[in-house]
Amino acid sequence: MGVAAVRTLTMASPQVPALQIEAVPVLADNYVFLLSRGQQAALVDPAVAEPLIALLEARSLELVAVLQTHHHADHIGGTPALLERWPACRVYAAAADLERIPFQSDGVAGGDQFTVLEQPVQVLAVPGHTRAHVAYHLPLSADVFVGDTLFVAGCGRLFEGTPLQLWTALQRLTALPPETRLWCAHEYSAANLRWAIEQVPAADPLAQALKQRLAQVQQLRSRGLPSVPTTVASERATNLFVQAQGPEQLAQLRGHKDTWRG
After folding, report:
1. Which of 90, 117, 132, 182 shows its CA 20 to 30 Å from the CA of 70?
2. Would you list the domain boundaries of the chain?
């Protein structure tokens, strides 16, 4: 199982190791995010359990927290088995989704804050893809785990929310500082960029920016590396859904993308 690591040197000292974040590919195109500091770890959206248990045990890491962005099976499927292995692990999830994420120990809502691995975590309400979707913002390291709300050059399908909710969620995420890293839960980047290129006139400077970004993504993928995280600055510059002027335009773009077979 391949792993891509990004080290963030926040709150690091000889006594307090740096926080490390890694993207762990699972299933067809999911990413589970492994946060570790010293010998403790947290996981974001563990779709499966067995390979994650093996990875944590190989590194002698104790799982102390799971962060769930929403209730879909490819995000929560591994959590029950992980809890069997580490029963003291805390599970953070939307309190509004208790019925669909019943194993949560800590129900949260937008505006809440808690601490994981000595790092403050802010909860952002980002409904749209699902009615109770949340994101987790780590302000000290400038990282956000966005689940299926925002992707590289894309956004999540509207399964339960409204265009207004999703548009508001995208604006909320991209109002964060431009250097903020956005950790998207799926590898959809190349397809999203190919779609976006088809929507933009060839003479528009944005078309060239999209083509350049697609080339960068293809280079990463050819080396077996993930194309995430992205950044707020990159999505402001090249994400048509983020650039939508309002919910109506977002709904039109999302509807077109839903039926696109490029």
Report:
1. 117
2. 4-259
Which residues, including other chains, have CB under 8 Å from residue 254's CB and lie 6 or more apart? 155, 157, 158, 163, 166, 241
Q: What is the DSSP letter of 114?
A: E
What is the helix (H) or strand (E) element at residue 252, kind and residue range?
helix 247-259
Q: What one-letter code names the amino acid at 119?
A: Q
Task: Determine whether 224 is exposed, middle or buried from the number of CB atoms within 10 Å of its CB (0-12, 13-18, 19+).
Answer: exposed
What is the separation of C-alpha 18 from the centre of its chain, rounded to a whole number of angstroms? 21
User: Does pTM surpass 0.85?
Assistant: yes
pLDDT digits (tens, 9 = 90+) for 118-171: 999 999 999 999 999 999 999 999 999 999 999 999 999 999 999 999 999 999
Length of the chain: 262
* β-strands 90-94, 62-67 pairing: parallel
Query: Alpha-carbon distance 62 to 135, whole Å?
Result: 23
160 burial via Cβ count (<10 Å: 0-12, 13-18, 19+) = middle
Q: Which two tokens stand for residue 83?
A: 């809890």
Sequence letter at residue 82: L
Q: Is the pLDDT of residue 37 over 90?
A: yes
Q: Is 90 exposed, middle or buried (0-12, 13-18, 19+ CB in 10 A)?
A: middle
Backbone φ and ψ for 93, nearest 5 degrees, come out as -155, 165
Taking CA 189 as the corner, what is the angle to CA 186 and CA 193, rounded to the nearest 5 degrees? 150
State the CB neighbour count (10 A cutoff) for residue 50: 11
Rounded-to-integer distance, Cα 85 and Cα 6, Å: 26
